[in-house]
Design brief:
Strand order of the largest sheet: 1-2
Number of helices: 5
Radius of gyration: 17 Å
Low-confidence stretches: 1-9
Helix content: 25-40%
Number of strands: 4
Strand content: 5-15%
Length: 110
């Protein structure tokens, strides 16, 4: 039986490892390590070029939850290394319309 989450359909029950999706990792780490990774959570402080690449890699590895933390405003240098940002993100205001700008982590989540 498949479960739906955010319009994605998963054929494996929660808590079990999808062997097709994680076949390369299972070959190196094994089932038990993959299950531990899938139950783990991470906080990434700093979502510049390196931080966003680390976030992408651990999300693709199957970690269950990632929290991004970066209050810095995006600048033109971030456009070269952060593939989630665009030129339009450089001057975005908060969702409530206040003068406060959105930080890099907020923009990467959107």
């Amino acid at each position: 039986m498949a479960s739906e989450t955010n319009n994605l359909t998963f054929s494996t029950p929660p808590g079990e490892v999808d062997e097709k999706l994680y076949s390369r990792q299972l070959y190196v780490m094994g089932h038990e390590a993959q299950k531990r990774m899938m139950a783990s959570r991470a906080v990434i402080v700093g979502v510049s070029g390196l931080g966003v690449e680390v976030a992408k890699n651990i999300i693709l590895a199957g970690i269950s939850s990632v929290t991004l933390c970066d209050p810095e405003l995006p600048n033109s240098f971030d456009l070269g290394g952060n593939f989630y940002l665009s030129e339009g993100d450089l001057n975005k205001c908060d969702e409530d319309g206040s003068d406060g700008k959105k930080g890099r982590a907020d923009l990467c989540r959107d």
